[in-house]
Write a structure and sequence with these properties.
The chain is α/β, with parallel strands linked by helices. The chain has 3 domains: 94 residues, Conserved hypothetical protein from pyrococcus furiosus pfu- 392566-001, ParB domain (Alpha-Beta Complex); 34 residues, no CATH class; 51 residues, no CATH class. The chain is built from 7 helices and 5 strands. It has a 5-stranded mixed β-sheet. A hairpin with a 5-residue loop joins strand 3 and strand 4. Helix 1 crosses helix 5.
Length: 190
């Protein structure tokens, strides 16, 4: 017999974004290119999805997902899914929410078909979509590239790849992508 999956959503509320408390351990950072693209999407479409938060003992709502949206529109009333999670459960969800989404694979031909008929009104959105298509055409990573080397006191060969980036924003996007995939990375400017 399988264990039933619990529905932890208890409410959908409209809350002023600046009243939402950021999670103190939010590990995701938001580079300028992402902020610009999100602003463009919000201006073009508006809110079409809810932020995710848990209600704390003091009645405040602590964000689990949606930190950048809340920062971007602090004076707006935003949709918030309120979930019944303990602090520990919220921390687990915060740690796996984005990595689970990042595990999805892209069908480049369907993505191109999806956006081929769209008229792009904003350069940031067009850039985001172009980057997504380019990433979908890059060779998939193998298990071997995801294995982190074991630290050792003895000398060992190190195998590295140096990637030339167009600018700091691209460097930051690639660094975040590769670290999310479990690769050990360092950032440098030559």
């Amino acid at each position: 017999m399988t264990t039933p999956i619990r529905d932890r959503v208890v409410d959908l509320r409209r809350v002023r974004a600046d009243q939402l408390r950021p999670h103190p351990l939010n590990w995701r950072k938001h580079p300028t290119a992402q902020r610009t693209a999100l602003t463009a999407v919000l201006n073009e479409i508006g809110y079409a999805g809810a932020l995710l938060a848990r209600e704390c003992d003091d009645g405040t709502l602590e964000l689990i997902d949606g930190h950048l949206r809340a920062e971007t529109t602090p004076e707006a009333e935003v949709p918030v899914l309120v979930v019944d999670l303990s602090a520990e459960e919220a921390a687990l969800l915060l740690s796996v929410h984005d990595p689970l989404a990042a595990m999805a694979e892209t069908d480049a031909s369907l993505l191109e078909a999806l956006i081929s008929g769209m008229q792009q009104r904003d350069a940031a959105i067009a850039g985001l979509l172009a980057d997504t298509i380019a990433q979908s055409k890059s060779p998939p990573s193998t298990t071997a590239t995801r294995i982190k080397p074991t630290p050792s006191l003895s000398w060992r060969d190190q195998f590295q790849i140096v990637v030339d980036c167009r600018d700091e924003a691209e460097q930051r996007r690639l660094f975040e992508r590769f670290t999310a995939e479990g690769l050990t990375c360092r950032v440098s400017v030559l």
